[in-house]
Amino acid sequence: METAAALPGDVLAAVLGRLPAHSLAASRCVCQAWRRLADERRLLLPHLLPHSVRGFFVNYVDPPPPPTHFFARPAAAPGPWIDGAFSFVDPEHRRFGGRCCNVADHCNGLVLLQDELLHTELYACNPTTRRWVRLPRLAAAGRAFLVFDPAVSRHYEVLVAPVDPPAAAGIKVSMEWPPSRCTWQVFSSRTRRWRPRVFVREGEAAGVAADMAMGSLPYVKEAQWRYGVYWQGALYVHCRGEYVSRMSLSNGKYKVIKSPVDRAECYNKTRSFIGRSGNGVCFASIYACRLRVWILSECRDQTEWTLKHDRDLEPDDWWEVVVKGDHQQIKYTGPWILDDYYDSRKAKRNVDWSSDDDDIICGAEGKKKGDGRSMYPPSFHFLGFHPFKEVIFLTALGVAVAYHWNTSRVQFMGILKPNCHNYGVYDSFVYTPCIRPA
């Protein structure tokens, strides 16, 4: 023990990092110095949260139950089957109520479910271990976000945002928004109870409430200003009015970050999304066939969006892959399929997404830039960012692809059309598994 204590931190971290998961976890109990080293170097993270994409939870617009499906490679290799309908969650309640749940958020392997009728009823679950808990019922519904870092703690928090300007009673159209102080409801798995938490704004507001309402936007079926990203101790929330709120969970401060998309563009059918990649917080916008991607840079009090990609997409090429093949056969065999077709799956050994395995549709080499005119440009939908690579997942015409924004390479994944009638994808969440139970 004395010999180990005398080792430099880098050397000791290298030694501990070579231990198997159970031994590394046990080493954290040896002394406070080892525990701090393992946590600060995040040595357990590769064991608890493998850097792999297991699939997508997809919420559909107005389908019959179940409203959520799981899109993934057919799982022929050993491993748990992911239940996209979450039938293991509160089966007695479902049996007598006959209701289903939508996925409200996902963070590092944990999933937050919301009852489709009682929006104040939430569940936190781990689809890999099938452990779940029912949260105490909320007094009022709101946008719910999940915060979980398995490398730091097994505990998690659920944060529910206050109402947006259009729905908030007594808000004057001329008052600044967001307000200087806002109260969120926060659930902690440590205390198993909700409590109000006040966040104090640092810096300027995004504008006035009347501008943030944005009530005359073109109608779209998919979610707008829906997503949040947990990154390095802060929750970044994409807010109505086209701005980002950075909520610091350590000190109760929050800051308005201007969106890289001008608010006027939203009235011109530009849709925007926030996410996370290996480089940090990302932002994407889609207008017709034009895709832009930014990375957020933060240094002290300065924040800046750096444009990383600006290119027109070619969704007709995506559809051509299906037209040349057998549409029904592709739905059943993939490469990726919805859980509707698991019983007819074609065996494949690789159950994680790989940048080398799926079919290449087109790439930057030899491909002229499109003019933005495609058969159905409004049908684009954002499925999510790859959390560890420079990849964005998209769908158009029911075809799902992985788009590498650093090379403009497009890879065909599969068809996102379930058996039930629906009006398309509402929102979706990239699922990365975690072996630590909820």
Structure characterization notes:
With 438 residues, the protein is an alpha+beta fold. The protein has two domains: 2-43; 48-315 and 363-431, Neuraminidase (6 Propeller). 15% of the residues lie in helices and 37% in strands. Strand 24 and strand 25 form a beta hairpin. The longest helix is centred in the last third of the chain and has 10 residues, at 315-324. The model is unreliable at 345-350 and 363-370 (pLDDT under 50). It comes from Panicum miliaceum. This is F-box domain-containing protein. Residues 7-47 form the F-box domain.
Topology diagram in text:
Blueprint lengths: L1 H4 L3 H8 L4 H7 L4 H9 L4 H4 L6 E6 L7 E5 L18 H7 L3 E7 L2 E6 L6 E5 L4 E4 L9 E5 L7 E5 L15 E2 L3 E8 L4 E10 L4 E2 H5 L14 E4 L2 E6 L3 E6 L4 E6 L4 H4 L4 E7 L2 E8 L2 E10 L2 E11 L2 H10 L2 H7 L3 E2 L20 E4 L18 E5 L5 E6 L2 E6 L4 E7 L9 E7 L7
Parallel strand pairs: 11-16
Antiparallel strand pairs: 1-2, 1-27, 2-21, 3-4, 4-5, 5-6, 7-8, 8-10, 9-12, 10-11, 13-14, 14-15, 15-16, 17-18, 18-19, 19-20, 22-26, 23-24, 24-25, 25-26
Question: What keywords describe this structure?
Answer:
27 strands; eight-stranded mixed sheet; alpha+beta; single chain; 10 helices; Neuraminidase; five-stranded antiparallel sheet; 438 residues
